[in-house]
Design goal:
7-stranded mixed beta sheet, 217 residues, 7 strands, alpha/beta, 9 helices
């Protein structure tokens, strides 16, 4: 299991059921099941092929009797209050929030912790979470296979926040030792992004300020 999935596993609420949505090869599902920390572990995927691989992974790990595999789309495989944590790893930011939007029961106080590893557009997912009443429990930068990821955990509070561009770009990653490396990776994308932003706009001013700060350091 790589550093991304290990970081995600560390953010799951102990002692409560957990679901690994889009479990793919089932490595995370197997690690969660083998740990013995959770009364129920559910691995789910949209396609039969990955579920078959996940079944083999569970068998190889000797914990097939401690996990349940389900075939289905997103959170449709779960019922309200069934799990305390939901892991959504490896899909785009937009796919992540579209999955959540189809399950109104995640938008309630005391609902499940959502653990995410967006494959793209970390900034967009942070903005969506804040604007839709979620608060971050963790926002950890992790490097794996030569690129940076953000492993996020959030819970619904109902309190919305209108973040700045910089908040969306970096989130809470600066609190971690790896934050500087993640910040440089995010900043490296800005010149290209700036080309499509009208001069004089609020977004252009924010991007320019971040780029200027980087040259002055």
């Amino acid at each position: 299991m790589d550093a991304r999935l290990a970081a995600a596993a560390a953010l799951v609420r102990p002692g409560e059921p957990v679901a690994d949505i889009g479990c793919d090869h089932g490595k995370l599902t197997a690690v969660l099941a083998a740990s013995g920390k959770y009364p129920k572990v559910i691995g789910a995927d949209l396609r039969p092929g990955p579920l078959a691989k996940a079944k083999q992974t569970l068998e190889h790990a000797g914990c097939e009797d401690r996990a349940e595999l389900r075939l289905g789309d997103g959170l449709s495989v779960l019922t309200e209050n069934e799990v305390g944590s939901i892991v959504l790893a490896g899909v785009s930011a937009q796919t992540t929030w579209e999955i959540l939007e189809k399950a109104p029961w995640v938008f309630r106080k005391g609902g499940p912790r959502i653990i995410m590893i967006p494959a793209t557009r970390h900034d967009a997912l942070r903005r969506w979470l804040w604007e839709h009443g979620f608060a971050f429990i963790a926002d950890r930068p992790v490097q794996a296979a030569g690129r940076w990821y953000a492993v996020m955990a959030a819970e619904y509070t109902g309190e919305t926040h209108e973040p700045t561009f910089a908040e969306c770009l970096f989130g809470g990653t600066g609190e971690w030792p790896e934050g500087a490396g993640y910040a440089e990776w995010q900043k490296a994308k800005l010149p290209r992004m700036r080309l499509g932003v009208p001069d004089g706009s609020a977004l252009a001013q924010e991007i320019d300020a971040i780029l200027k700060e980087g040259t002055e350091q």
